[in-house]
């Protein structure tokens, strides 16, 4: 997740808004963000409602209970999932350059801009 923070200007230049979802309680999430200095949005989902909607729940897989399995999604401005990367390995995730490359290939228009031609 640190690598996404490091490349945040590239995401923002394309109109991409990175958002992370954690099953940690809000206080834990705030502490973690204060410690790391990350500035992108991290949503706290302690009841795992969003995690369940995206079928990412690993019941009782964490030290203290449920955790979310690693995944990355590109969701267009209309809410359609255009790409996803799912893994069972908590140490292997899509790198920012992979996500940026997929975004460029998909030609997703940022909110408020006309759709780009796919030609």
Describe the structure.
- There is one protein chain.
- With 119 residues, the protein is an alpha+beta fold.
- The chain has one domain: Glutaredoxin, CATH 3.40.30.10.
- The protein starts with a helix and ends in a 13-residue tail after the last helix.
- The model has no long low-confidence stretch (mean pLDDT 84).
Spatial ordering of strands, largest sheet: 1-2
SSE-based structural type: alpha+beta
Counted beta strands: 6
Order of helices and strands: HHEHEHEEEEH
In the CATH scheme, the class would be Alpha Beta
Which residue ranges are poorly predicted, with pLDDT under 50 across at least 5 consecutive positions? none
Sum up the overall morphology in one term. globular
> Alpha-carbon distance between the termini?
33 Å
Radius of gyration: 15 Å
Count of all domains:
1
What would you give as the CATH superfamily? Glutaredoxin
- What fold name stands as the CATH topology? Glutaredoxin
Fraction of helical residues: 25-40%
Strand content bin? 15-25%
CATH architecture: 3-Layer(aba) Sandwich
Overall mean confidence score, pLDDT: 84
Count of DSSP H/I helices? 5
Major beta-sheet overview: 2 strands, parallel
Task: Please outline the helices and strands.
Blueprint (H helix, E strand, L loop, with lengths): L1 H5 L1 H6 L5 E4 L3 H11 L4 E4 L4 H5 L3 E6 L2 E4 L2 E5 L5 E6 L9 H11 L13
Parallel strand pairs: 1-2
Antiparallel strand pairs: 3-4, 5-6
